[in-house]
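This follows on from our talk about sequence and fold. Can you supply me with one protein entry, sequence and fold together? Could you add the entry underneath, on a fresh line?
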Amino acid sequence: MLIKGFILGLALSAPIGVIGLWCIQRSINYGFRYGLATGFGAVIADMLFAVLAVIGFSQLIEPLIKDNPWPALLGAAFVIYMGIQTLLKANPDKSVTLSQNPSLIKSFMSSFVLIMTHPAAILIFLGIFTGLGIELDQNTPWFTAGQLLLGMLFGGLSWWLFLSGLAAYLGKKMTPAIMYKFNIVSGIMVICFGLWLAINSWFH
């Protein structure tokens, strides 16, 4: 179960989506710790879904969110806001000083809230759960569940350590002009993704 948990943690973290872009951008602009804190928020949210599955709440959550667009719209609005903030702070000449950097808690909460407010994250999580042959319910021994959660923690953190470390290392070699372009592209991609989430949630 520990190995399955590790694979699950990697599978949930590896896709470079909005959280991946936040991790890269914050690692470059503010340092390794901020990128890692962003990824850690996603890992903890994923682990919380695993806990819910262990105690049998997954069957309760899915019917409630399946046809309700508001949790996804809330997540979309949050994504769009973060994209706008990225564009507003794109110019490295206007970048904040170290004392004005976003806190580690805010970096953590941004990704945690995004996953927790978007129902698609729950469905993806349950799909990977099934694909790995993991079946948990209220009768699952806590030792087995603990192995799964520990594996997820190691798997997720392994990915975010790699991504944030690589981004922070490469960021030291970037010129202000390259950083500005990177921030503009990141901001636009995040906003577009947020708009897509909003449209998709409203019409489905």
